[in-house]
TrEMBL record:
Pfam families named in the record: Cytochrom_C_asm
Signal sequence, renumbered to the chain: none
Gene Ontology biological process terms, A to Z: cytochrome complex assembly
Record-annotated membrane-spanning stretches: 12-34, 80-101, 113-134, 141-162, 174-202, 237-257, 269-285, 297-318
GO cellular component terms, semicolon-separated: plasma membrane
InterPro entries on file: Cyt_c_assembly, Cyt_c_biogenesis_CcsA, Cyt_c_biogenesis_CcsA/CcmC
UniProt keyword Membrane, yes or no: yes
UniProt keyword Transmembrane, yes or no: yes
Full protein name: C-type cytochrome biogenesis protein CcsB
Superkingdom assignment: Bacteria
Amino acid sequence: MSLSDYATASNYLIAAATVVLALAALAYVAQWGFARTLAPERETVSLPHSLRSREVPPGSTTGTVVELVEATESAERSDVAGGIGLSLTALAWLLLLLGVASRGMAAERVPWGNMYEFGCAAILMVLTAYLVLVKVWSIDWVGPMVTGFGTIVLGASMLVYVPAGPLVPALHSYWLVIHVLGAMISGAAFLVGAAASVLYLVKSKAEATTPDDERTGFLWRIPPSAKIDQVAYRVHAFAFPIWTFAALIAGPIWAQYAWGRYWGWDPKEVWAFITWVVYAGYLHARATAGWKGKAAAILALVGFATFVFNFTGVNLFVGGMHSYAK
């Protein structure tokens, strides 16, 4: 295949991955919808797709039996929709992996030298992290947010599409691989942490205000808020040192190589530092009495907002010495 063939294949593969990921998001939403009338499991629930069929208790009335049968059917539909969502997510990951790899072969370099490439490669990293954590921590309850956000980023990346080509001289360094790869890995974890933080805020409020007899729907079939909060903390604790290395160590070293100075308060550098400060505050808040729970979750979401703005707003609207990364 020629370089142009690789570029064309990459475009088709990434477009297909976007469509499949959107379908995965719809399947996850359907999973939530089918479970809207279900009561909580009597056992501790760890996975949305682990819903169990209810046995009809001896002496149950006909109405009770009908309700249990309907609940079982709804649970089965929710299971199927969740399984489809997970399968489509895995397929989208494979298509995106092939698309990003083809882009790299077309450009004859690492495929994250501009916003379009970074967006595609970053979502590939997000899906990788999500699929791994589904196996490790059973976090498919954040599936709708992860796939929905991924679809938006892939679609938006196409709006800043640039043909595959060589890098500008400042990007010709192995620090491109180290710096940007670290940013993508930490960004993927930040997204999972943000999704978990949103669910924590919703679930913790519901736990405090919803009577026991009104606790129906998918929200009550996911882990309790304390466990969700624990997942959020773990992924943030994993991401923070990687972000520290990528933004405050590898980035300045690359800046010295490219521009002859380690730090120049360029807008991109400033917002990278702001993101670091916010997440440092989040981790400190988790260890400080009175700042756990809601306050820490909100701080995590502020940190993710600064990360997203650094990627989009700074590049598109602020500029600076990193403007060639558009």
